[in-house]
Amino acid sequence: xxxxxxxxxxxxxxxxxxxxxxxxxxxxxxxxxxxxxxxxxxxxxxxxxxxxxxxxxxxxxxxxxxxxxxxxxxxxxxxxxxxxxxxxxxxxxxxxxxxxxxxxxxxxxxxxxxxxxxxxxxxxxxxxxxxxxxxxxxxxxxxxxxxxxxxxxxxxxxxxxxxxxxxxxxxxxxxxxxxxxxxxxxxxxxxxxxxxxxxxxxxxxxxxxxxxxxxxxxxxxxxx
Length: 224
Description:
- There is one protein chain.
- This protein is about 30% helix and about 20% strand.
- The protein is an alpha+beta fold.
- The protein folds into two domains: about 100 residues, no CATH class; about 110 residues.
- It has a five-stranded antiparallel beta sheet. Strands 6-7-8-9-10 form a five-stranded antiparallel beta sheet, with helices on one face.
- Strand 7 and strand 8 form a beta hairpin.
- It is globular.
């Protein structure tokens, strides 16, 4: 999956991250006490919702969903404007110290093509994580955490996940992060926190599942 870290991709990721923290997570935490988000068609959405409505980012828009057929949307312009449209107070409070700016008037620079790439990346990561976790005992659904804006789950003290990129690795990437750090000198462990595989080396869900399985095998002493 070719997903180079172009300027449009980076600004779109940053804009989505701000909305994730200061509109979706902010509204949901104030209403229901959880910051957990999830991948959704075109982007990502709340899990519990806000007072009977779900909030979602769909490409370059913020959508408010009520029931099966109720949907209204508005372009991602500023945090202040989209929060008002969603009926929430902008700015995450009472959970963790936000990673992004809560400036209500700063423009959200979101590119449609970059948004489609990021939505596809989250969808691939979600499908791969679910397949990987099948048969491994009780495991939680993958969660899109707003703080680091990555999708992940934890099994046996190891984090497995899918990131749209960050300051350390600009390209979208998959990761395996043992809580105790890399367990050995195998070249699979190629970053300080464990292992990362960028999107250019991930053709499909099968590649992503194989990466997670390799990390689990090495972490349990079953790999070469």
